Amino acid sequence: MRVGAILLIWFACASLDVASAEDQPLREALYEGKPASHWIAALKKSDLEGRRKAAYALFKLGPAAKPGAKVLARTLEDEDEYVRATAYKALLALGHDARPAVKALRSALNDGRPRVRQLAMWAILRIDPKIALRDEDFDVRK
């Protein structure tokens, strides 16, 4: 009897915790106290250190950086190697959520720098390999 009463109280308390968790709005993921929108805006600026920090922050935010997928894809064409590589890692962390970036990644395939083209192709392959297989360019399919 005591065990039943204890279990009943425990289940009642557990259901209250679930109900209160549902009432609270989801908190936006932050990096260093700032949301993804802050870091996406910083990635567009001319300040090199700011872009480096922003690319790293979006990488660390993972799926919460989804709104910045297109900006991250365009960042693959940045003149700084660290910014490009970190943006690439952030896109990979997004996985299929980076699909909005595919158009910008396709334009990066025409960049004059081989490393930029390589990062763009690898990102497309990780986001959605079927896209690369349907490309009209034989070299892209290959």
What does this structure look like?
By secondary structure, this protein is an all-alpha fold. It is 67% helix and 3% strand. The protein contains 9 helices and 2 strands; from the N terminus they run H-E-E-H-H-H-H-H-H-H-H. The chain has helices at residues 2-23, 36-43, 48-61, 69-75, 81-94, 102-108, 114-127, 129-133, 138-141; strands at residues 30-31, 34-35. The protein has a two-stranded antiparallel ribbon with strand order 1-2. The radius of gyration is 21 Å and the shape is globular. The chain starts with a helix and ends with a helix. The model is unreliable at 16-25 (pLDDT under 50).
Topology, pairings included?
Layout: H1 2-23, E1 30-31, E2 34-35, H2 36-43, H3 48-61, H4 69-75, H5 81-94, H6 102-108, H7 114-127, H8 129-133, H9 138-141
Antiparallel strand pairs: 1-2
Helix pairs in contact: 2-3, 3-5, 4-5, 4-6, 5-7, 6-7
Tell the overall outline. Answer: globular
Major sheet: arrangement of strands:
1-2
Show unreliable segments: 16-25
Number of beta-strand segments? 2
Number of helices: 9
Portion in helices = 55-70%
**Kindly, what is the distance between the CA atoms of the first and last residues, rounded to a whole number of angstroms?**
71 Å
What is the element string, with H for helices and E for strands? HEEHHHHHHHH
**Roughly what fraction of the amino acids lie in strands?**
under 5%
Integer average pLDDT: 81
Structural class: mainly alpha
Rg for CA atoms: 21 Å
Largest sheet: 2 strands, antiparallel
